[in-house]
Amino acid sequence: MRDDTRLTHLGRDPANHAGTVNTPVYRSSTFIWPDTGTLENHLQQADDPHYRGHIYGRNGNPTTAAFEDAVAQLEGGFRGLIMPSGLAAIVGAVLAVARAGDHILVTDNCYWHARQVFDQVLPRYGIQATYFAPMLGADIAGLLRPNTRLVYAEAPGSSTFEVQDIPALAEAAHAHGALLMLDNTWATPLFFKAFEHGVDISIHAATKYLVGHSDAMLGVIVTTEALYASVRETVRQLGYIASADDAYLGLRGLRTLGVRLRQHQRSALAVAQWLQQRPEVAQVLHPALPEATGHALFKRDFLGSTGLFGVVLKPVYAPQAKAFLESLQLFAMGASWGGFESLIRPQQRHPSAHIEPGVLLRLHVGLEAVEDLIADLQQGLERLSVTPLALRNLS
Ligand SMILES: *Cc1c(COP(=O)(O)O)cnc(C)c1O
């Protein structure tokens, strides 16, 4: 079956839920047992990763399990583990596979808060991370150390949008006995099939496109069969779980993921191409544009692009950039992305970013009419040609 059909069926089981179309919200900390035999039966199997019975809320319930299964099946992994946020998924997965004395090679264009975990939290537990230039590909072999346990990738990076060679990173890591972990939030399980490309563990900030409506925090880890039991054991021992209400929002988001992403894709590309023609713009960072770093890899490995990309404005005075951002009516300034609404924000460059000088911004193109979005950006960009002195008089 094709993905659009699977998106309407994954994680649903009407026969076991009174015929209701959607898997209901099971608000549950406690499951009770009718007799001591059932109790013993549950407890004996509690540590078996293949056991699907429910014992205690922290181990999940039918709603969280439905979300885990749906995401894992869509991505082509073995099984998923629901997490309270995308960052918790990163931390939980890394702690599940790395131990004191291990080394991790991290892509230099990774999500900023992941970088803080690698730099500030993990060293306290004896895990050391160093960074590699995102386009290194197979040459990463030269950086692998005897104690390198994990290569951590994010393709494309969510601040500067280089598309990495995931199969080459996987091959080099595996030849060395290391694992490849991927933050697949940008492409989602719909547009990048991580497990066909050699990934061992993928994580998603489901907060973004999977939930899709800017109204819940959620994460998920998906693994191969070989890793599932040990990753599950660690993340549940650490106490990570998400609520059934948020799992329900994740499942509901999945139903429209295909239609939403196709509109995000179409509109973001139109906005990106329009921006490329503007005199105020130095560079547009969008994996689906032929000029993009790693575009050939994007075409080879990805099934589509989404609504998040970067733009570098030619150098302007700070008050001009401020006036541009504050003039926008449809692009709100805000953290996060992946909801139905358009967002814009200034963005940090990672140390090895080879991009033009100027003001780096990140746009999330939402589901509004693209003509309105372009008109909004146009009136804003026109303010950049006004000098700061004239701006003061204007405001
Ligand atoms: C937002 C984000 C995360 C973290 O997800 P949260 O749910 O906010 O914790 C991780 N990776 C990427 C690429 C993100 O954009």
Describe the fold and architecture.
Its cofactor is pyridoxal 5'-phosphate. This is Cystathionine beta-lyase. GO terms for molecular function: cysteine-S-conjugate beta-lyase activity; pyridoxal phosphate binding. Pathway: Amino-acid biosynthesis; L-methionine biosynthesis via de novo pathway; L-homocysteine from L-cystathionine: step 1/1. Belongs to the trans-sulfuration enzymes family. The protein is of the alpha/beta class. The chain has two domains: 3-255, Aspartate Aminotransferase, domain 2 (3-Layer(aba) Sandwich); 258-394, Aspartate Aminotransferase, domain 1 (Alpha-Beta Complex). 38% of the residues lie in helices and 15% in strands. It contains 14 helices and twelve strands. The chain has helices at residues 3-9, 36-45, 62-75, 86-97, 112-121, 166-175, 188-191, 225-237, 244-255, 257-276, 295-301, 318-327, 370-382, 388-394, and strands at 79-83, 103-107, 128-132, 148-154, 179-183, 201-205, 219-223, 281-285, 308-313, 332-333, 343-346, 359-364. The strands form two sheets. A seven-stranded mixed β-sheet has the order 1-7-6-5-4-2-3, with helices on both faces. Strands 8-9-12-11-10 form a five-stranded mixed β-sheet, covered by helices on one side. The chain is globular. It starts with a helix and ends with a helix. The mean pLDDT is 95. The structure holds pyridoxal-5'-phosphate (PLP). Pyridoxal-5'-phosphate is lined by residues 85-87, 111, 158, 183, 185, 205, 207-208, 217, 219.
